[in-house]
């Protein structure tokens, strides 16, 4: 069993949305996946299955002993960040915190990517930081908003869209780093 956690001390960066999408990703690749939501939001409501291949843990933006335990047990930590200057500081604090607890792979997920200058400047800054093992960008996307409203996957809502491609890349990247073997070509 592999454990993937989503961690960032800033709120609204997409931890719960991405945790839900990772669960859908593993399910459509025929893996038994449990999702544990450690915050109270509806989308992160826990969904448990017996004997899971993968456990995805959505965490709150608060550091406590429970979060430390989750990070210690993770095989990959995904740190979502919005591409804005005000996200840089909490993001760096989260990276330092995670790195002080574990040396497992970190995936930086730049969530809400767009074509504004603020986002491209953020990517320039990030490329100079040497943070994480992989970086995956997920676009700012109406399909993501709609899928959340419909309580289904972005893949189910808009199979051929850019957001679906990006979320598939995130799942592939996490699987690769965690050593999870996914069935290629099922989607
Ligand atoms: N890529 C995206 N495109 C469009 N909307 C998005 C995207 N990512 C997240 N959102 C929106 O941002 C909101 C906040 O995301 P989410 O609840 O996943 O953040 P969070 O990090 O879990 O926040 P918290 O720390 O408060 O739990 C979502 O309800 C969703 O509507
Ligand atoms: Mg949340």
Features:
187 residues, six-stranded parallel beta sheet, 19% strand, binds adenosine-5'-triphosphate, 7 helices, globular, Rossmann fold, alpha/beta, binds magnesium ion
Write up what this structure looks like.
It contains 7 helices and 6 strands, in the order βαββαβαβαβααα. The model has no long low-confidence stretch (mean pLDDT 94). The protein has a single domain (2-178), classed as Rossmann fold (3-Layer(aba) Sandwich). It is an alpha/beta fold. α1 (15-28) crosses α7. α3 links the parallel β4 (76-81) and β5 (106-113). It has helices spanning 15-28, 65-73, 85-101, 117-127, 142-150, 154-157, 162-178; strands at residues 2-6, 33-37, 54-58, 76-81, 106-113, 134-139. A 6-stranded parallel β-sheet has the order 2-3-1-4-5-6, with helices on both faces. It is globular. Bound molecules: adenosine-5'-triphosphate and magnesium ion. Magnesium ion is lined by residues 15-16, 39, 41, 44, 58. The site of magnesium ion (MG) has 6 residues, from α1.
């Amino acid at each position: 069993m592999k454990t993937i956690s989503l961690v960032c001390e800033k709120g609204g960066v997409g931890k719960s949305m991405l945790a839900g999408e990772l669960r859908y990703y593993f399910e459509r690749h025929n893996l038994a996946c449990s999702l544990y939501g450690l915050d109270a939001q509806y989308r992160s409501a826990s969904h448990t299955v017996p004997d899971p291949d993968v456990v995805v843990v959505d965490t709150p933006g608060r550091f406590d002993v429970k979060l430390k335990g989750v990070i210690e047990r993770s095989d990959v930590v995904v740190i979502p960040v919005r591409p804005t200057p005000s996200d840089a500081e909490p993001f760096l604090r989260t990276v330092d915190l995670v790195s002080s607890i574990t040396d497992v792979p970190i995936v930086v997920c730049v969530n809400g990517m767009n074509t504004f200058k603020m986002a491209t400047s953020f990517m320039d800054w990030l490329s100079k930081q040497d943070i994480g093992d992989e970086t995956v960008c997920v676009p700012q996307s109406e399909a993501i908003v709609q899928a959340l409203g419909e309580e289904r996957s972005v893949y189910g809502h808009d199979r051929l869209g850019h957001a679906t491609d990006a979320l598939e890349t995130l799942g592939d990247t996490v699987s690769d780093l965690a050593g999870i073997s996914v069935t290629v070509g099922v989607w």
